[in-house]
Design a protein that fits this description.
mainly alpha, Methane Monooxygenase Hydroxylase, Chain G, domain 1, 92 residues
């Protein structure tokens, strides 16, 4: 998947941040932190995973279905752009 290779450093950085967040949740549980604090950490992780998922889906659409910025077929480009917007909205 060449599009993943192009953005590899950025994607790896996001995954590493997620690992750090997961370790913070583990530490919070180990140290018996207040449940609200732990829930906030988990909510942050969920947001980060959702953001990563949205980025990967968008990259997949642009690489394997249609890139709305480059597709000569206007109807297909519009459909791809709409799909990307739906994914972004749904995964907010």
């Amino acid at each position: 998947m060449s599009h993943l290779t192009k953005n590899k450093a950025k994607l790896i950085a996001r995954v590493r941040r997620l690992k750090g967040q997961l370790e913070a949740v583990e530490k919070s549980l180990t140290n018996e932190a207040p449940c609200g604090e732990t829930l906030n950490l988990v909510a942050s992780m969920r947001g980060a995973i959702t953001g990563l998922t949205a980025e990967l889906i968008e990259d997949h659409i642009r690489e394997h279905i249609s890139n709305p910025d480059k597709d000569d077929d206007a109807e297909r480009a519009q459909g791809a752009a709409e799909l990307i917007d739906v994914v972004r909205t749904y995964l907010k």
